[in-house]
Every structure is written in structure tokens, then in C-alpha cells.
Design brief:
CATH topology of the largest domain: Ribosomal Protein L4, Chain: A
Strand order of the largest sheet: 2-1-3-6-4-5
Number of strands: 6
Number of helices: 7
Largest sheet: 6 strands, mixed
CATH class of the largest domain: Alpha Beta
CATH superfamily of the largest domain: Ribosomal protein L4/L1
Length: 209
């Protein structure tokens, strides 16, 4: 599977990049994608929610009224959740929402996500570039050249590049990651996935195992 390589100005360089069929052209597994995205979102939850239950409330422990003869329900504590100011019944408690997912399933999910994007022609391959210093305007010019300034985009670098990363931080719709940080959620969340040439080898070696 060959894709044209673009330069920093969005022009065709005349070269072609070979995308592995084992990574970018498999039969997508929708359920694997769903599970990996679900795990990613679950891991973003802090799980620090806590409501006061009757054991956490300060109040008298005396019996409110006699057990029988009142014609109403039994009541043994003012801290009960049925009374105003009492504890909450079955309130939220701190918990970890994360769950385990098999490595092979996660790998299949990422390959499926890339294959979906490739099938939709939403993958762009771009030659390596760098900025002399972090500058938002330079990054905006790159997005304009690729016609993605008003779309959600994901730029995948071959390795750490602080100048490019820092230049991108003011754009909410665009994210810069390295090949090792690539996730199914980030792939599916982007309208365009821009792969830098140096990232292709890392992506294919990580996902072809």
C-alpha cells in the first residue's frame, strides 16, 4: 500500500511511502477498538468521588421514638438516610475504574483503527520537519498547508521533538504524539492522522509483533 509523501508546504515530494498491509490494511475488529477506547476513557477517570454515609455523619445515636405503637415505621437513628441531614444511602465511594486488557487485543485495536483511517483516506504521510524554535505560527502554517487547521488532527512523530510539541500546545484540535504514545482513542478521535516518515518504522515494528 503506497501513499504519497508530502513536504512541510503540503506539496507532493514525488516519493511514495510503503504502508504495511499487516498494519494499515487488515479487516478491522470493531469490538477490539471498542474495548481499547473504553479502557482509555476509564483510565482517565479519577474515581475520587465520595458521599457521606450514615457512618460518616455526626449526630445523636439515641433512639428517636419507641419501637411500637406510633403507627409509623421504626426509626433507630437520626443519621439514617431517610431523614434530612442523614447520610446518603448507597452513595459513591472511591474506586478505580480501570480494567485489564490483553496486549494482543490492544495491538489488534490499534491496527484496526489505522486500517479504518487508511480505508477512509484519512492518513497523510509527511516528510520529517523541525522548527528552529517553538513558535505557534509555524505550526499553524503546517496545518494550513495540509488543510487541517479547522479539523481534529493527530501528528505522529518518530521521536521526541520539543520544538514541534511546544508549538502545537495552543491548538485544541491538534495533538502531537510520538509513535510509542499512539493509542486507539487518539487515532479514532482525529479526522486526519498525519504520520511523519520516521514514525512509520516504529509503528509497524510495534504493531507487527
Amino acid at each position: 500500500m503506497k501513499v504519497a509523501v508530502l513536504d512541510i508546504n503540503g506539496k507532493d515530494t514525488g516519493r511514495k511511502a510503503e504502508l504495511s498491509k499487516d498494519v494499515f490494511a487488515i479487516e478491522p475488529n470493531d469490538h477490539a477498538v471498542y474495548l481499547d477506547v473504553k479502557q482509555y476513557l476509564a483510565n482517565q477517570r479519577q474515581g475520587t468521588h465520595k458521599a457521606k454515609e450514615r457512618g460518616d455523619i455526626s449526630g445523636s445515636t439515641r433512639k428517636i421514638k419507641k419501637q411500637k405503637g406510633t403507627g409509623t415505621a421504626r426509626a433507630g437513628s437520626i443519621k439514617s438516610g431517610v431523614f434530612r441531614g442523614g447520610g446518603r444511602m448507597f452513595g459513591p465511594r472511591p474506586r478505580n475504574y480501570g480494567f485489564k486488557l490483553n496486549k494482543n487485543v490492544k495491538r489488534l485495536a490499534r491496527k484496526s483503527a489505522l486500517s479504518i483511517k487508511a480505508n477512509d483516506k484519512s492518513i497523510v504521510v509527511m516528510e520529517d520537519f523541525n522548527f528552529e524554535a517553538p513558535k505557534t505560527k509555524n505550526f499553524l502554517n503546517v496545518l494550513k498547508a495540509l488543510e487541517v487547521e479547522n479539523k481534529k488532527s493527530l501528528i505522529v512523530l518518530g521521536g521526541t521533538n520539543n520544538n514541534v510539541y511546544l508549538s502545537s500546545r495552543n491548538f485544541k484540535g491538534s495533538e502531537v504524539v510520538t509513535a510509542s504514545e499512539l493509542s486507539t482513542y487518539k487515532i479514532m478521535n482525529a479526522n486526519k492522522v498525519i504520520l511523519i516518515e520516521s514514525a512509520l518504522e516504529g509503528i509497524e515494528s510495534n504493531l507487527s509483533k
